[in-house]
Design a protein that fits this description.
alpha+beta; Arginyl-tRNA synthetase; about 25% helix; 4 helices; PH-domain like; 8-stranded antiparallel beta sheet; single chain
Length: about 140
C-alpha cells in the first residue's frame, strides 16, 4: 500500500499499524541495534512507482523501517513524503551483484550497489532475518 504521508493523518497511521504492525519499542530497537536504515540510493523502480520519485534529479533516496509484521519504505519527492508499506508475507528480497531489489504488490524498487548500500548491508541482513522469523512463526501447518 502506498500512501502520501506528507501531512499527519490518523487514518494513515491506523492503516500502517493494521498492515505492518506497531513501531518497535525503544528497548527492543536498542537490542536489535536499530530498526531503520540510513538513506539508500534508488537505482530503478517499477513503472507504477515512477510518479513517486524525482524525475529531474539523478539521486533518489529511500529509508526503510522495520515493523513487527513488515517494513515501511519512505521516499522523499521534493516536499512530499511517500510511504510504501509491505507486510512480510508479501516481501521478496533479491540480492544481485549490482545491489538489492525489494519486490511486493506487483512493484519493485532496486537499490544501487554503492557506498550507501554498503553502509546498510547489516540492515538488509537484519531485515532478512526478521522476515525469516515472521515466516517461521506463521508457517502453514499441513495435516
Amino acid at each position: 500500500m502506498i500512501l502520501d504521508t506528507t501531512h499527519n493523518n490518523k487514518e494513515h497511521k491506523q492503516l500502517l499499524i493494521d498492515l505492518v504492525g506497531k513501531t518497535i519499542g525503544f528497548f527492543e530497537a536498542y537490542k536489535m541495534r536499530g530498526i531503520s536504515s540510513k538513506p539508500i540510493t534508488i537505482n530503478e523502480v517499477s513503472p507504477s512507482l515512477h510518479s513517486y520519485i524525482n524525475q529531474i534529479s539523478d539521486s533518489n533516496f529511500a529509508n526503510i523501517e522495520l515493523r513487527s509484521k513488515g517494513i515501511i519504505i519512505y521516499i522523499n519527492k521534493g516536499l512530499k513524503n511517500i510511504t510504501w508499506a509491505i507486510p512480510y508475507y508479501q516481501l521478496v528480497i533479491l540480492y544481485k551483484t549490482n545491489g538489492v531489489s525489494i519486490h511486493a504488490q506487483g512493484k519493485f524498487i532496486h537499490f544501487k550497489n554503492n557506498k550507501t548500500f554498503k553502509e546498510n548491508k547489516s540492515f538488509f541482513n537484519k531485515m532478512l532475518d526478521e522476515k525469516i522469523k515472521y515466516d517461521q512463526q506463521h508457517k502453514l501447518k499441513l495435516p
